[in-house]
Amino acid sequence: MSRLTRPCPAFDAALAGLAANAGLGADEVERLRPLCDRLEMWTAGAQIEAPRRTDRFRLITSGWIYEARLLPDGRRQIFGYVLPGDLICSRHGARAAPSVLLALTRVEGVDVPAALAVAPDGRRTPLGDAMAHAVEKQELRGYDALLRLGKYSAAERLAHLVIELRDRLCRVGLASREAFRAPLTQEHIADTLGLSVIHVNRVLRTFRSCRLLTIKFGMVTLLQPEKLERLAAGVAASSAPGGGGPGASAP
Amino acid sequence: MSRLTRPCPAFDAALAGLAANAGLGADEVERLRPLCDRLEMWTAGAQIEAPRRTDRFRLITSGWIYEARLLPDGRRQIFGYVLPGDLICSRHGARAAPSVLLALTRVEGVDVPAALAVAPDGRRTPLGDAMAHAVEKQELRGYDALLRLGKYSAAERLAHLVIELRDRLCRVGLASREAFRAPLTQEHIADTLGLSVIHVNRVLRTFRSCRLLTIKFGMVTLLQPEKLERLAAGVAASSAPGGGGPGASAP
DNA sequence: CGCGATTTTGAGCCATGTCAATCGGAGTGG
DNA sequence: CCACTCCGATTGACATGGCTCAAAATCGCG
After folding, report:
1. Are residues A23 and A145 in the same domain?
2. Cβ of residue B203 lies below 7 Å from strand D
3. How many Å apart are A105 CA and C28 C1'?
4. Cα–Cα dist A220/A213, whole Å
5. B57 in the same domain as B37
6. Is B146's CB within 8 Å of A142's CB?
7. pLDDT tens, A86-122?
């Protein structure tokens, strides 16, 4: 709702991210650069509307967004996150109000004009293809989320989410292999993973005492990335060494 | 894999279903009818490939399909079902092997030629629009599934699934308000709802003793449709009368 | 320095999972 | 027609993961 126009920030990173996400050539990316003075901004907590037309996209250049359904009784299910380098397309805001997009932090982004995605003859440009590809990738993440909720234990779900976020942020240069910052409360995590806040806290404590993972002041630190990756893959972690073998469950 | 060409079966019902699902005019539907002699068939258990091209669709005219990811250790998560009148598009079989489509029964369907979905000038025909719309509807169901797994109790999940299937089958004339047949084992249901087979059985027993729902010989009977609908909507069922108040949990 | 939001902890309970066994129907072969 | 087998449904006993309630500890902030 609250839109301002501001000068360029992490625009380059977002472009690089889009390129990485969608497999774009450097020359294609350059054609987007002029857009950076049309930057839009939303404040934390604002609801973000999806573009109406199917052929339009909104590229997020900085900030975190979550996609959720809000239940009448105040509960909510978070379906996923939109990060810098990701695209918002009409699908997100579609009819039947399946979900809303809410800014978790201050968010900046640009609308990519239809002309850049669809050539005059009605065919898609390489950029359009790349964006469609990026959108498809986002859809695939839905399957992962379903698997996470349907088959994973609490510890596995948490590991899976952390690894997903790290990998995505990594591609945009916002994470290293073992750390990134995330503006998430434990309540967000709980609403994403289908767990209670209290149980999320407990799993975090376990991870901390295992020296697996810590979250402090919005900074997520992966102390043993490989082990977390294995957990996230649903590989029944057997050998629980060192710390004292609290860790995961045995499926 | 096993494809045969056979004469027309429930082709009309599938067309009517597509029309209902996608909001198609009767005249548009008629243009599909000539396809009915290109019918393809798969045997139960066969894997169904998605069309490769984005603009092609495969219309299912009879039979049940489930979409799942198979885990290396033999477990599986069922993401959803494809029913008569539904479409399979390239998205389903996309790269990264997110899921496979497996025939639960004998399945029949037709490939809709690209020419019917996309006009020579590259724009979508009304039929193409309708099919895209139907596909979008299928995507929306993904959100419902996520909510079901993330926020619902076992009883609510079961009710939600039953209502979803009833409503979809109803639109194709394969269900009445209080009964339909479904080729699902309790294991399929469990893998869909993220529960153990045994617990599915327990919930079914509870429903049976509540006179809410029975499943016998593949026939699903909704004894109290309204109550089930309320349960499926996640409305914390309060008044548990009659039977003795076993029913649902209190969130 | 007090307040609201968030994190942490503890105690106890219930829903759900696991293990083990029985039962019933549908084929199948003799 | 019967014995056998396989698969799915059913049941019981038991273990436990995850939830609820309640309260303290911390943090961010005006």
Report:
1. yes
2. no
3. 67
4. 7
5. yes
6. yes
7. 999 877 665 666 899 999 999 999 888 877 777 777 7
